[in-house]
Amino acid sequence: MIPQQLPATAAPVPGGRVCAHPDRAEIRLEAVLHALSDPMRLRVVRTLAARGVEAACSEVELPVSKSTCTHHFRVLRESGVISQTYRGTSKMNALRRADLEALFPGLLDSVLAAADRQDGRLGGVTGLVRA
Amino acid sequence: MIPQQLPATAAPVPGGRVCAHPDRAEIRLEAVLHALSDPMRLRVVRTLAARGVEAACSEVELPVSKSTCTHHFRVLRESGVISQTYRGTSKMNALRRADLEALFPGLLDSVLAAADRQDGRLGGVTGLVRA
DNA sequence: CTCGTAGTTCGACCGCCGACGTACCATCTG
DNA sequence: CAGATGGTACGTCGGCGGTCGAACTACGAG
Questions:
Q1: Do A56 and A91 touch, CB atoms closer than 8 A?
Q2: What's residue A18's pLDDT?
Q3: Using the 8-state DSSP alphabet, how is residue A94 labeled?
Q4: Closest residue in B to A40 (Cα–Cα)
């Protein structure tokens, strides 16, 4: 489902591969919290935050299969946490910091800080790969 | 499961009905986020926060059956978000503000603020009962 | 054109989760 | 004691969610 209907009238990318993002007004707090409550997805978000810039799916190493990986990135995108754009053969992911900050001020940062703290407490078991 | 083993040496309450809470060090961020990502539970937390003091289960009106209600309160307790104590025939619930603040500074407040904001945006559909 | 890399899609599996009703227990009030 | 009130325990049901493998598509490099 969600077959991303797009008329040929708008072709932002040469190849024309685009995926649907919720716009700012559609982002729901419960969905964001749910997205962040999964260890894998939280790890993705932390990695993206640590880099500061966008990263390809394959650059965020997750101990799961490719299809599961795709699944998690989609959940993050559909909940409004990240945005995804195709760049050549790979897909770049970026945190939607501005949107999240506008909707839920301080939320993302406190979650990230909380994750870091907990990581420290538990001795880094939570598993964020440090560059 | 989790049959709350407690020796008779400590009897804090006359009747002796107690329930197990995770202590501060055991509270996990993912569990908290998961607990808060459910609309019903978020509603409970917001109601407790709005009151400032503890409230009985029956005082937090939820559009679900009694047993479902019990379930949600248990999830909140086991994730470390609330504490529960028996008081006479009813069970009092309180936010574990101090513990959450110590572990994840600012997190609870930003979630609560985010919920309020979203409530405003969506015209109060989210359904927090205002006293 | 061919190949390799990067993601996607599909179907399946299985566990968990939210919801319910019923039966039950604990406490207070008469 | 009896009854009422407030929660719990248990079993169940339906659906969602995380995981996988296999087949497939899209793009870039030779």
A1: yes
A2: 81
A3: E
A4: B30
Q: Which helix (H) or strand (E) holds A95?
A: strand A90-95
Residue A103: CATH number of its domain: 1.10.10.10
Asked, for residue B8, whether it belongs to a domain, the answer is no
Question: pTM for the full model?
Answer: 0.86
- Best CA proximity match to B78, nearest among B103, B96, B97, B59: B96
Spatial separation of the C-alpha atoms in residues B19 and A107, rounded to whole Å = 31
If one counts the domains in chain B, the total is: 1
The pLDDT of residue B17: 73
Distance to chain B for A16, nearest Cα, Å:
34
Q: What is the DSSP secondary structure assignment for residue B74, as one 8-state letter?
A: H
In a domain, B6, yes or no: no
Cβ of residue B110 near strand C, that is under 7 Å?
Answer: no
**Residue recorded with tokens 């329930």:** B19
Q: Tokens for B2? A: 């989790």
Q: Which residue of A has its CA nearest to B115?
A: A29
State pLDDT tens for residues B37-81.
999 999 999 999 999 889 999 999 899 999 999 999 999 999 999
| Residue B7 in domain | no
Distance CA B119, CA B128 (A): 8
Q: Which domain holds residue B51?
A: 24-112
Sequence-ordered list of residues with C-beta below 8 angstroms from that of B38, at least 6 positions apart, any chain = A30, B72, B75
Enumerate the residues of chain A whose CB falls inside 8 A of the CB of residue B33: 33-34, 36-37, 42, 111
| Domain contains A18 | no
Tokens 């990502």 belong to residue:
B37
